């Protein structure tokens, strides 16, 4: 196919490691243009570390994206959004739609790397009705939208439901990004005013009666660092530490579905 063949991705930093994984392991994607709206700014180095031969460039969100000249072959434009947007589903939806509108002129398909997220994306058809390119979202095996990031990593709605009903008591779930950034994430979602003072979070945890801290093991990231981060979290909040095997099938299948639109656009 002649000319740029671009897949757009707009996603939440809670699934940063999953986005870095699918992008880095896609041998068809020669270049990745990243717009990172988070404070952590870690996804660029993760992709470079996993795929050192890829051309990876990070730009500021204030840049005029349409001015970038993308090469022939396949490229990816990845826009990472901060977790803080989850405080307001309408604002989350609005910010994601703004990102879609800005990258759409350069893309042939767009993947929203979110679940329903508090009904922010409950009606995808209405949200993307004016889009000129196919827009997809993280989906279960039956084609329905995933509930949230944890449902994504657990493998779908049924797996999520079984996970929840099989818990002995209330549990706090952490994926790799939550484990690595829980202090700043709690501040971003207003559980903490000061990331260095966890006493207010401890009070919330006592009220919620959490019994365990459960790490979702996707196999991504540094397993030793993940183990240490979980141990620290469980120790601080006096929780039992548990592990639960997670999966990448939702992100892999959803990514591949979006990518197929590059070569097989809808009629």
Give the averaged pLDDT, no decimals. Answer: 92
Quick one: overall form?
globular
List the total number of helices: 10
Number of strands: 9
- Can you tell me the CATH architecture of the largest domain? 3-Layer(aba) Sandwich
Given as residue ranges, the uncertain stretches (5+ residues, pLDDT < 50) are none
* Major β-sheet strand ordering: 3-2-4-1-5-6
Question: Domains counted in the coordinates: how many?
Answer: 2
N- to C-terminal separation? Answer: 17 Å
- Biggest sheet character: 6 strands, parallel
Report the CATH topology name of the largest domain: Rossmann fold
Describe the model:
This protein has a 6-stranded parallel β-sheet with strand order 3-2-4-1-5-6, with helices on both faces. It has 267 residues and is α/β, with parallel strands linked by helices. It folds into 2 domains: 4-149 and 248-263, Rossmann fold (3-Layer(aba) Sandwich); 159-245, 3-Layer(aba) Sandwich (Rossmann fold). The longest helix is centred in the middle third of the chain and has 15 residues, at 89-103. It has helices spanning 16-24, 43-50, 89-103, 124-127, 149-154, 157-165, 176-188, 199-208, 223-236, 249-263, and strands spanning 4-12, 29-36, 55-59, 73-81, 109-113, 135-137, 171-174, 212-217, 240-245. Helix 1 (16-24) runs parallel beside helix 2 (43-50). The two termini are 17 Å apart. Strand 5 (109-113), helix 4 (124-127) and strand 6 (135-137) form a beta-alpha-beta unit.
List keywords for this structure.
9 strands; Rossmann fold; alpha/beta; about 270 residues; about 20% strand; globular; single chain
């Amino acid at each position: 196919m002649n000319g740029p063949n671009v897949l757009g991705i707009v996603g939440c930093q809670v699934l940063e490691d999953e986005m870095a994984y699918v992008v880095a392991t896609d041998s068809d994607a020669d270049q990745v243009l990243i717009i990172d709206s988070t404070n952590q700014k870690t996804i660029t180095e993760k992709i470079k570390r996993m795929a050192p031969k890829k051309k990876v460039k990070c730009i500021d969100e204030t840049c005029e994206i349409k001015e970038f000249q993308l090469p022939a072959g396949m490229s990816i434009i990845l826009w990472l959004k901060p977790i803080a947007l989850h405080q307001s589903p309408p604002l989350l939806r609005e910010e994601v739609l703004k990102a879609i509108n800005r990258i759409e002129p350069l893309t042939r398909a767009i993947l929203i790397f979110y679940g329903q997220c508090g009904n922010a994306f409950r009606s995808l058809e209405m949200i993307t009705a004016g889009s000129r390119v196919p827009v997809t979202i993280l989906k279960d095996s039956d084609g329905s939208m995933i509930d949230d990031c944890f449902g994504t990593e657990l493998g779908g709605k049924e797996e999520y439901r079984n996970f929840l009903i099989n818990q002995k008591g209330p549990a706090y779930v952490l994926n790799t990004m939550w484990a690595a950034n829980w202090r700043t994430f709690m501040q971003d979602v207003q559980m903490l005013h000061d990331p260095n003072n966890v006493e207010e979070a401890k009070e919330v945890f006592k009220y919620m009666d959490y019994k365990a801290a459960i790490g979702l093991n996707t196999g991504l990231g540094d397993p030793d660092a993940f183990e240490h981060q979980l141990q620290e979290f469980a120790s601080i909040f006096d929780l039992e530490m548990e592990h639960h095997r997670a999966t990448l099938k939702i992100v892999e299948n959803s990514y591949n579905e979006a990518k197929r639109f590059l070569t097989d656009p809808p009629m």
